[in-house]
Amino acid sequence: MTVPERAALPGVSEGRAGQVLAGALVAEGAMDLLGVEELEICPWALREGVILRRLDHLPEH
Amino acid sequence: MRLGVLDVGSNTVHLLVVDAHPGARPLPAHSHKAELRLAELLDERGAIAPGGVERLIATVRDALLAAEDKGCEEVLPFATSAVREASNADAVLARVKDETGVDLQVLTGEEEARLTFLAARRWFGWSAGKLLLLDIGGGSLEVAFGIDEDPDAAVSLPLGAGRLTAGWLPGDPADTADVKALRRHVRAQIARTVGEFSRFGRPDHVVATSKTFKQLARIAGAPVRARASTPSAS
């Protein structure tokens, strides 16, 4: 599938269509080797983690 | 207080502004994104080329202005794999600091995995039990596992979607032999670290962050989710 064809898939943005094949190989490999059948998407990630850690170190009012 | 977090990633430079208080759920207020693709701006020696450094400085400056406009009291600036692995990282960080005043904190891959795990734990809560977290960034793959807020195991592998595309899949459509070779490389790299996780037993819940996983979930038929949580959902 070419990059423009991938960009037409549901949820795939034009900017990331080029990367989604490599991403899929990594996802498939990781899930397979770690024995994962199913996973849930989490909307919070690194940026939220940085904020949460900063807040943990603020004094409580 | 209003906090800004400035994320210099391999694909994007992203300012996220949140209203945050200790003990409260951080509420996203604003998101400002620039596609810089730093990982693709490396030259043949693995250095961020001069043009890339200029663009990074301009982007950081824009983000700072946006943070000021939105009333941020503090900005937490950090960089991940693209800057971390650039052969001229120290020079780039010094230039950014001189010209913008921003002291980018370079996170190690393990810190990246640990902080992402913390966010996932807070999102899903203690009832999720033993969590296994996967995150595919532009430059690296993070895997973390644990029952607490700080994971028992956390690793980062140089298997980001942007990095692998640039290094292994030159054609469009990709050549079948290239895909096979990349598949073998990816699996060999991951297989080396599997033992660090399997010794903890089965996770109760497996969660994934990152734009790559969100896109794959949509391709696989997952419904569009309302971004009730945060506009940083990428």
How would you describe what is shown here?
The complex is a heterodimer of chains A (about 60) and B (about 230). Chain A has about 60 residues and is mainly alpha-helical. In chain A, about 50% of the residues lie in helices and about 5% in strands. Chain A is built from three helices and one strand. Chain A has helices at about 5, 20-35, 45-55, and one strand at about 40. Chain A is flat and about 55 Å long. The model of chain A has no long low-confidence stretch (mean pLDDT about 95). With about 230 residues, chain B is of the alpha/beta class. Chain B folds into two domains: about 1-105, ATPase, nucleotide binding domain (Nucleotidyltransferase, domain 5); about 110-220, Nucleotidyltransferase, domain 5 (2-Layer Sandwich), CATH 3.30.420.150. Helices cover about 40% and strands about 25% of the residues of chain B. Chain B is built from seven helices and nine strands, in the order βββαβααβαβββααβα. Chain B has helices spanning about 50-70, 80-85, 90-100, 110-125, 160-170, 175-200, 210-220, and strands at about 1-10, 10-20, 25-35, 75-80, 105, 130-135, 140-145, 155, 205-210. In chain B, the strands form two sheets. In chain B, strands 3-2-1-4-5 form a five-stranded mixed beta sheet. Chain B has a four-stranded mixed beta sheet with strand order 8-7-6-9, sandwiched between helices. In chain B, strand 6 and strand 7 form a beta hairpin. Chain B is globular. Chain B starts with a strand and ends in a 15-residue tail after the last helix. Classes of the chains: A mainly alpha (about 60), B alpha/beta (about 230). Chains A and B meet through helix 2, strand 1 and helix 3 of A and strand 1, strand 2, helix 4, strand 6 and helix 5 of B.
